[in-house]
Every structure is written in C-alpha cells, then in structure tokens.
C-alpha cells in the first residue's frame, strides 16, 4: 500500500517530482515536459522548485542536496538518493494534517478529546476537524480496511496496515513515537532472551516498530479479541517471555493471553522462532498447505524437472512454508523486490522456473479472497524464484546449458576456467568433461573445425567483457531450447510470465 496519499497536495507534488529525479540515471528532468505531465504553470513549477530546495536543505546531512537549473529548461538534482528521498517524505508526512488525524483516530481517540489533541499539536481546529471527517473515506478508498491476507479480523487488518505505514516510512530514518524508545528497547531485550538466535538489525527494527503499534493500540483500548485463528501452544519459554513483558508493562496495562498470542504469532510468522514453530502454527491455516500443494503441482504439470525427486526438498518445503504462512497471515506488502522491470532478467535466466512460477501466480490472481495486487504478485514471483534457485540443483533442470572447456595448455588452464564458471552456477550450467551431443557451448583457446557447437575463443585470461558475452550466449542457448522443452507454452517472446502478472493485476 502506497501511503503517500496522506500527504498534502503541494507536498505530494514535490514528492512526485523528487521521485522522478531518483528514477533517472543522470537525475535530470525537462522542465517543459514536467509542467505538461503535472498540469502546472511555469510560475507554479518555480514555486515548487524553491520549496523542494528548502526541504532538501533541511534533511541533508554532511553532503549538500539541492536542485539546480544548469541549462535553461533542464533541472538537475545533486546529492539526491533514495535515503534522502525517504527523509524528505517523512518530513512531508509529519506535517500532513491527514496524518495527524490518522494518529489521533488510531492511537489516541480513547485517551484524549479532540480539543486536547488539537491544542497539544498546535493545529488549526478547522483543519484538524476537516481532516478527521475525511479520513475514513480516504482510507477506505485506498483499501486500508481491506484485509491483505486471509486473516480477515478488522483489528488484525488495521494493526497490520498501521505497521506497514510506520515500518515503510520510518525505517532507517528515525523511530516513530520516540518517547517509547526506552520501554521498547527493554521489550526487545526481553523477547530476544527467548529467541534461539540473535536478531539482525533489520529484524530488530521490524520487531521494534511492530511493538510500538501493538502497545499503542492496546493503550488506546483497541484489543485484538479472542477469536484469533492463530493459537500458539504455551511452553515454558513462551510463558517466561510473557511474564517478562508483563513486568515491563505492569504500570500501564495488563497483558492478556490473547494479546501475547498475537505477538508470539508474529514472531513465529517472521521466522524468529524457527521452522518447527512455524510449521506447528501453520497447521491452523489450511490455505498454507493448499498453496504449497498447488505450487508443487504446477512444478510437475509444467514438467520443469528431469525428475520430481528434489535433492533438497526439505529446504524447498521450508521456504514455501515461510512464503505461504506470511502471505496468508502477517503479510506486509513489500517496498523492495517489487519492480516488474527486474522480473525480465530472472525470466530469461531461469525460463523453466519462470513458466511454473508465472502460472502459479496467475492462478492466485484469479482468487478473489487473496486480493493480490501487482506489487504483491511481483514480490511473490521473486520469493518463489529464490526458493527454487536455492533448493533445486542444475542437474535436475530440463533447461540445462552444457559447456565443454578444452584448453590446449592442459588441465591447469581448463580447470581455472571451470572454477571461474562457478559464478554462473545459478544459470543451470553443466560442465561436460568431453565434447558430447548435449554440449551447447565449447570454450577453448583455439577454434576447432571438428566442433559444430557455438565456440568461445579465449587466448588470454577472460576479461569482464568476455564473461558478459558468455552470459549472453548462455541466455541464447536457453531461448533456443524453450520451444522443444515446453511445446505448449508461448515462448516466442520470453518474459510472457511478466506480462501475465501485469495483465492479471490490471483486471
């Protein structure tokens, strides 16, 4: 969910313009084209130019960040990157009346009167009341109250979307609700003591943000309820964790079994407690097994593997369990690995996987209960791809590329190139000890008339350009194999899987 709809009109235009700079390699924009695209006059555009420079100056750190017009009609950004864009977006968010109204509605409306909150935030009463009146309709329009997973509890959905808002926009810049920092640090430490492994920085940040939303919703008397589908089995470890948290919260609230169950379920869904706990809790969600079985069935139906026996089926099973458990419960719409442009690369490098993955996602998109957006579909594409790449060895793939390495200088040179080819092991490469009918590419230091296959001649150690050209040949070999490997698929234009994802998302 894109939460920039909360920004005021003028700040949203500034955000739009700054985002366009970061999408250009040279960070330049044509002023006339920009004015036409945004339906702005030259005067308006110049005013926004001044505003953006003021905003960038306020968030820049050691390196200056600003916009300039080095040539008439051309704007260029200097020192602007994704991190500074996130900082200026957070600046816009915190001065947006709609965001102030949102924080009151979801975190403080049972603790303070509207008048008390307006006074505390130095706001105009009329602006606050207008924002509060329009908040519900605005959030509904942007699907804030629509469940993003199969878990349809209203409070569960609200908390999940609030978490996504704060985690996305604050992550790496600052902590939301900073007065809570000491308490949150102690809560994270208490939870960490009951986990099998040390939390990484990204995991700790995610947990801390989750705890802030969880705590504030409880303090504002918005409880999770006792009708949760996810029900943990209490253990000595979980009980000890609950007692530690209750001691920390004793002055503010009573930690109920239902609320701890909700928190512990989140820890399990994020994989903080291991796959055994996740597998145990997933037994309460039939859709997890259903989606996994559907995906494995697609692998068999599309005949991707030479054999259906996977060497590391346990690893694939664990990966699919994690994907589907999070997808059906605590699904947090990602902000990374969501670009359809990058899918093309994987579709070409792993065409067999692309067929199975794209078909699986297309089926999911046609289910009305999953509410699969394009961002979700693309992220799921990457998740499935990575799960297969990590678990399925090249020897099992039908779209293998066979390479024979044969240098006249002998094994020393030959083995060096073979060892270097390990960098391409993700491309399902099989090294042939001798030239065979299956060989697709022949690498040597001299051309041979006895070889009919594609030949690569390296008379000196290969350069980065040589490796790049070899990668292109590997992709070409894969494309040529597709029609015979998948005769029932439209492989004339690779990347069709991406097109299916995009087209179905637009329906």
TrEMBL record:
<feature type="region of interest" description="Disordered">
    <location>
        <begin position="485"/>
        <end position="507"/>
    </location>
</feature>
<protein>
    <recommendedName>
        <fullName>Mga helix-turn-helix domain-containing protein</fullName>
    </recommendedName>
</protein>
